[in-house]
Amino acid sequence: MNVDDKLDYVTAKQKRVDNWPEVIEWQVDEYGYELLELNKDQMLLGRNTDGELLTPGYLEDPYFRTSAQAQAYAAMKRGLEFVHKTRVTFPLNYPNKPQDTPNLIVTGDFQDGMFIRNTAESFIIDSRYPESGDIERKYNKVFGLTPLAKEFWWNHRLREALYRYINFMIGGDYGV
Which end of the chain has a smaller Cβ tally under 10 Å, C or N? Predict the structure, then answer.
């Protein structure tokens, strides 16, 4: 490699380093379904985007007019727990949620309506479910990834893609 070749290589590598946000956009476009599954899994395991338990719990939920209604609903949800856990794709070693903690699924319409959209600097997760805004307001921080889910996606998907892109393993020669 002569000096001009080395300079071309360094210049091309710098362009790739500068363009790393494009790699994230490509990964979200191609593997956004994994991000959605991670977000759904968090909900099913009773976690908000901070990784904390979803609140209010069934027994403190002001939606229920009586304690008996809340207890009956919590018992119904306990009966569905096994079915709901079969929907989890990436459990990520979250501890079992307390039985009083919501998992934001009954019929599945809310979670089945979830979608991901790339933006200039990030991505947005939301749901087409008609009451999704009410759910977000009530439980706060339901759309997005916990630190554990972000770490998983970095290790599972993004780190390798960035490495391959910056080192010209994606896109062939020095072209950017």
Answer: N
**Each residue's pLDDT tens digit, 46-55:** 999 999 999 9
- Residue 22 included in any domain: yes
SS3 of 20, please? helix
Q: Are 32 and 116 in contact (CB under 8 A)?
A: yes
**Residue 58 pLDDT:** 95
From residue 75, alpha-carbon distances to 23, 41, 85, 98 in Å are 45, 21, 16, 12
| pTM of the predicted model over 0.90 | no
Phi first, then psi: give them for residue 171, nearest 5 degrees: 95, 5
Reported as a single tens digit per residue, the pLDDT across 90-106 is: 988 888 899 999 999 98
| Residue 1 is assigned to a structural domain of this protein | no
66: containing domain: 17-166
The CA-atom distances, in angstroms, between 84 and each of 97, 105, 141 are 12, 8, 20
What's the domain count of the chain? 1
